[in-house]
């Protein structure tokens, strides 16, 4: 009579290893799918963060605009889908005090220029000193001003590869 088994048989070991291998295969597939989902989610989050950053910059530029009697914002319609916008704001990305901020479209790319001197025309002079921020490639960039006594602006930007922006802005420094 046998007293008891002290070890697994070879068949029991093969069955256990087979079951473990099948479980690992499914776990690896699940892990791979999770990594793909995380990569897609990361791309979408970065797109949303970029759009939110652009909205924040535009919002702060216009809401912190400095009032002057002739109007706070100079809007010049360059083409059907492009505006040239100049304003003085207390918002600065480059540590300037009350800079002039210009939004300009060149070769379908929207730029934000920040300078201590006001740009008078669309053509930039060679002696102008400014910092440039690239906003993105656009189909159209338009700024609309309300005709009412209160100054508010509607910023409409259609991007080629990002979500469009439609933003209503009311200046805080209004008199």
Automatic annotation (TrEMBL):
InterPro entries: N_methyl_site. It holds the Pfam family N_methyl. The chain crosses the membrane at residues 7-28. It comes from hydrothermal vent metagenome. Keywords: Membrane, Transmembrane, Transmembrane helix. This is Prepilin-type N-terminal cleavage/methylation domain-containing protein.
């Amino acid at each position: 009579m046998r007293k008891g088994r002290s070890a697994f048989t070879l068949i029991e070991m093969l069955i256990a290893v087979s079951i473990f291998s099948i479980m690992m295969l499914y776990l690896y597939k699940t892990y791979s799918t999770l990594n793909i989902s995380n990569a897609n989610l990361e791309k979408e989050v970065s797109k949303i963060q970029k759009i939110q950053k652009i909205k924040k910059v535009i919002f702060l530029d216009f809401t912190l605009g400095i009032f002057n009697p002739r109007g706070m914002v100079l809007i010049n319609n360059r083409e059907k889908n492009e505006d040239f916008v100049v304003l003085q704001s207390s918002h600065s990305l480059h540590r300037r005090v009350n800079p002039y901020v210009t939004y300009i479209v060149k070769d379908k790319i929207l730029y934000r220029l920040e300078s201590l001197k006001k740009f008078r025309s669309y053509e930039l002079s060679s002696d102008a000193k400014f910092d440039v921020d690239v906003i993105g490639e656009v189909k159209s960039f338009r700024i609309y001003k309300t005709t009412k006594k209160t100054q508010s602006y509607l910023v409409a930007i259609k991007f080629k590869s990002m979500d469009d922006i439609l933003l209503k802005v009311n200046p805080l420094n209004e008199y």
